[in-house]
Write a structure and sequence with these properties.
2 domains, five-stranded antiparallel beta sheet, Gyrase A, domain 2, about 240 residues, 7 strands, Arc Repressor Mutant, subunit A, alpha+beta, about 10% strand, two-stranded antiparallel sheet, about 40% helix
């Protein structure tokens, strides 16, 4: 098992996802990040979401999306076709799938660790994103994860692995937001400017999330917003 999967398995909640990857024949082509992002997306679409829409959001093929849907529904029972309400079976099917109570409870556990995943405003990231024109950045907050960061290289590699352009990590110490480094001298740590600090602080406060010392912000980028979101979340998984 490689280092990335070892880091994923350190979070006991993710052990619930292991049955999705068990197969006697063909190994699934989706990864943990696709599963988790799909649950975030289901959580944002309480009216239901279909396989084609999810395929586009996850940047995966039709066959992979079909397999993921089937396993989420039949293997771990995290999603279902809503059966309540008026309408024919055809109308119900068109609404797509929704989270089951079991799926919602699992997503709630994950959101305690990654409570925020949203599109970032490039205006405040000029000193952070190298390719401003093609960045399409997303950012997420990972709670109490600073101890798991060395220099941010592992997170960057995880973002690239999922076809993103890269990822940048930032650490909050209760007063400032700074870039991770192996340097122990606090005076030599590079911190973000005040506008960038205020932007992240406002976004986090507006999401009703508590911003605490040792929290980590990850900014991911890619060729399109979907890849950026995947890159951001895949980088975050290395910190769990």
């Amino acid at each position: 098992m490689n280092g990335f999967l070892r880091s994923i398995n350190t979070m006991k909640e993710l052990s619930e996802l292991e049955p999705l990857f068990e197969s006697r024949t063909i190994k699934p082509t989706f990864e943990y990040v696709h599963v988790l992002l799909s649950l975030f997306i289901f959580g944002e679409n309480s009216e239901g979401i279909g396989r084609y829409r999810l395929k586009e959001e996850l940047q995966i093929g039709s066959g992979t999306a079909k397999s993921l849907f089937k396993k989420l529904k039949d293997v771990i029972k995290f999603i279902m076709v809503p059966s309540e309400g008026k309408g024919s079976n055809t109308e119900i099917q068109r609404r797509g799938h929704v989270l089951t109570e079991k799926g919602y409870k699992f997503l709630t556990k994950i959101k305690k660790k990654i409570p925020l995943l949203e599109k970032a405003n490039l205006k405040f990231l000029k000193e952070i994103i190298i390719d401003l024109e093609n960045g399409n950045p997303y950012f997420c907050l990972v709670k109490n994860a600073a101890k798991n960061i060395k220099d941010g290289i592992e997170q960057r590699d995880a973002a690239i692995k999922i076809n993103g352009s890269g990822a940048t990590c930032l650490i909050y110490n209760g007063k400032e937001i700074y870039f991770p480094t192996k340097v122990n001298n606090l005076n030599e740590r590079e911190k973000v400017n005040q506008d960038t600090f205020d932007y992240f602080k406002t976004q986090i406060d507006n999401a009703n999330v508590k911003f605490e010392p040792n929290d980590v912000i990850i900014i991911g980028s890619g060729d399109n917003p979907q890849k950026s979101r995947l890159a951001t979340l895949n980088a975050a998984l290395t910190l769990l």
